[in-house]
Amino acid sequence: MSEVLDKLVNKFGDKKVKVSDDYFEKYGVDWYKGIKPDPLAIFFPETEEDLIQLVNLASNESYPIVPSGGRTGLCGGATATQKEIVISLERMNKIEWLADKQQIKCQAGAITDDAKALADENNRLLPISLSSSSSSSIGGNVATNAAGAKFIRYGSTKDYVAKMKVILATGEILELQKEIKKDSTGPNLMEIFFGSEGSLGIIYEVVLNTCEKPTIREDLVIQTDDIEVIKNGILKPEIKQAISSVEYWDTNCQNLLGSNPEAKYFVLVQLASSNAAEIDKCLESLAEKELNISLLNSKQAEEAWAKREDLPVILADNNAYKMDICIPIEQLGSFLLKIEEIGQTEIYSFGHLGDGNIHLNIVSKERELELIENVYSLLKDFGGSPSAEHGIGQRKKNIWSDFPEYQSKYLLLKKIKKSLDPKNILSPKVFFSD
Length: 434
Ligand SMILES: Cc1cc2nc3c(=O)[nH]c(=O)nc-3n(C[C@H](O)[C@H](O)[C@H](O)COP(=O)(O)OP(=O)(O)OC[C@H]3O[C@@H](n4cnc5c(N)ncnc54)[C@H](O)[C@@H]3O)c2cc1C
Description:
Layout lengths: L1 H11 L4 E2 L2 H7 L13 E3 L4 H14 L3 E4 L16 E4 L6 E4 L4 E5 L4 H10 L2 E2 L12 H6 L7 H4 L6 E7 L5 E5 L24 E8 L1 E2 L3 E9 L3 H7 L2 H4 L2 E8 H6 L8 E9 L2 H13 L3 E5 L1 H20 L3 E6 L5 H12 L3 E6 L4 E6 L5 H15 L15 H5 L4 H14 L14
Parallel strand pairs: 2-4, 3-4
Antiparallel strand pairs: 1-2, 5-6, 6-10, 7-11, 8-9, 8-10, 12-14, 12-15, 13-14, 13-17, 16-18, 17-18
The structure holds flavin-adenine dinucleotide (FAD).
């Protein structure tokens, strides 16, 4: 082990290789603190060449490595637990505007907000919208296929990736693209890297498409005791086209935020379009419904969205056990009623109501295990996904056995992993236990 460290330091020097506890504490672990970090070293490549040389060294030595971006992942995917070398892509953070195609070329360590700001400067939109976007990296967004509050309108990170460069654990380089919309040259193999959580290859360069930036925006709040109102009211096709986000939080969260709940659910809706008539039509249609709606001015909207963004942080500070699940939208109302029945005061829920992707936060240590089991059991009844956003990482590997419907996927993933990483050196603890 120390031989590898010697080789690493001799080859790259101590500016790029860090071995002190302060670096281990900061760079050896992601946002999930339930797994203790234990890296061999933190390596900071500054160029493609550095990265290629490191991967070749690890491959020759059969030594484990873990890619790391902004470390905002919530499943321990970027956490080193058995003396792996953590490859922090933080210094590979260049961003370039490609004017001809209105695209952004990023090195993987580029911060999401910096890429979004570059799109904005060029009057375009990069709609990857996460509360962690001031720290998360583009490589991490691709590796987790991140999607947030604007999924309902814009989809997830994978929908914006035009090209990417990946280095495999064997040192081979792949240059993948899906710029041509219709392409039947076999399966689109770029897809396997979306959500691969560092276990199939290290993404080091990404070209992202951008889209038209809406010029008009309206934010509104609906307070309701009946979540079905979303399905019956605002998700109607004629209204849906102007909607860019439908987020909510429940009474428990309202209390936590210090607000005075007027109803069980606080639903925050954003409309966005470049067509004023489209927004007007949507507002008129909403006004016809018997809903408790308030239009927000820009200051109120900013405050409401800040509260929504603060929620995951406040709940983490309260040691909440986080579950990010997805329920078919038609059944969300009845699912939330069941959640109330099993943990009225212990389960705090908020999230992306428009897509059925909700974050359940269990705040009772005494009943935590029981409530997790109850939620899983409900999920099975409702045919939902046990991980709709944050992935599996090292933390949620139980899902493979708890949800037998994922068995075929697990087997295929294992075969792909074996063929791309025969020595099992790339994030060996992610997805798999052996
Ligand atoms: C407050 C908060 C809010 C969040 N909100 C959302 C949300 O709304 N939607 C959502 O989807 N997620 C959300 N997340 C989760 C997280 O921010 C995203 O998954 C994000 O995309 C991770 O990016 P990162 O750079 O921080 O990745 P990291 O945490 O550094 O890594 C995540 C995984 O990707 C791998 N990885 C990182 N970089 C690379 C690379 N270049 N090549 C290959 N693998 C790599 C790592 O090994 C790890 O397995 C949130 C997290 C926090 C803390």
